[in-house]
Write a structure and sequence with these properties.
- The protein is of the alpha/beta class.
- 41% of the residues lie in helices and 18% in strands.
- It is built from eleven helices and eleven strands.
- Strand 3 and strand 4 form a beta hairpin.
- Helix 5 crosses helix 6 and helix 6 runs parallel beside helix 7.
Length: 298
């Protein structure tokens, strides 16, 4: 067996001191104002023993994080699309550059992109009146972000939670627009019950599929119905429950998956982003995940 790497999905809970952020912003010190919060998330992941880290998505929730920087979008109560969606320059790149500057050399960095279908489903369309065209314009904009991200990260993950609710006929094409010519490893993450979408997911132009196998353990049986060559990132601790799973429980879950899929289990991670957990519990889950990984790899 090759070594199974521990990873995160994206978000991590960090308490934001909003007054300080505002003061930095009005003093034209916007970028620096977030560095301490990003460092807090990264330091927790490093201390927990995680192999593949993120920036913690501390700056914004995952929809607003991208919509805020794209031409054609505005944010009021929700994200509204009011004009043609266009790329307007790097969105998360500066944060990844900062993480790279503080990341230990033995750790890897994951750049996370919110997927075009999920963005289109999360916005109020006041311009296109055509969900498909809007999704494709999101995809072409995100393609530029992926090209910029690739210079600084080791892995790019596309986050498409709406694929568990609906898989459009053009889903593979959307993902392909972003991943085309991207040479680093590519992951597609979709939380929720993706049982009905598995045939389409197995056709996606990525090397690793990442799913919520801990909260939805029946997905192991559902994936076992298919023959496939893609690798899996096994959700191994829940992101919707504050209870910190024991190392023994996590090891048992991983071993069951290995018994079913062998070397196809390439990574283990939380089921989803950890933003809704307390910081103490999020860290505890990552720490026990890393300890379970050491036992499995030992």
């Amino acid at each position: 067996m090759r070594k199974i790497k521990t990873s995160v999905i994206g978000s991590y809970p960090v308490s934001i001191e909003t007054l300080g952020i505002m003061e930095d912003y009005f003093n034209q010190n916007e970028n620096k104002s977030w560095n301490n919060y990003i460092k807090t998330a990264v330091d927790d992941m490093v201390k927990a023993g995680i192999d593949i880290l993120s920036d913690g998505q501390t700056r914004d929730p995952f929809i607003q994080l991208f919509a805020r920087k794209l031409n054609g979008c505005r944010i009021r109560d929700r994200v509204e699309v009011v004009d043609k969606i266009r790329y307007n320059g790097p969105i998360t790149v500066d944060d990844q550059k900062y993480v790279r500057s503080i990341l230990p050399k033995d750790r890897m960095l994951k750049g996370v992109i919110t997927g075009p279908f999920t963005l289109s489903k999360s916005c109020i369309d006041m311009h296109y009146n055509d969900e498909k065209n809007m999704a494709f314009d999101f995809a072409y904009a995100l393609k530029e972000e992926a090209k910029n991200l690739e210079k600084y990260v080791d892995v790019i993950s596309i986050d498409e939670p709406f694929f568990s609710n609906e898989m459009p006929a053009y889903g593979k094409e959307l993902i392909g627009i972003i991943t085309e010519k991207i040479r680093c490893p590519k992951v597609l993450h979709a939380c929720g019950d993706v049982s009905s979408a598995i045939p389409d997911l197995l056709e996606m132009p990525v090397g690793i599929l990442s799913h919520e196998f801990k909260a939805s353990p029946h997905l192991l049986d559902e994936f076992s119905k298919y023959s496939f060559s893609k690798d899996l990132c096994l959700g191994s601790v829940r992101s919707d429950n504050q209870t910190v799973e024991s190392v023994e429980e996590i090891v048992k879950h991983i071993r069951k998956a290995i018994d079913m899929f062998g070397d196809r289990i390439a990574q283990i991670s939380p089921d989803c982003g950890q933003r809704l957990l307390s910081r103490e519990n999020a860290y505890g889950k990552l720490r026990n995940l890393a300890r379970a990984g050491e036992i499995i790899n030992g």
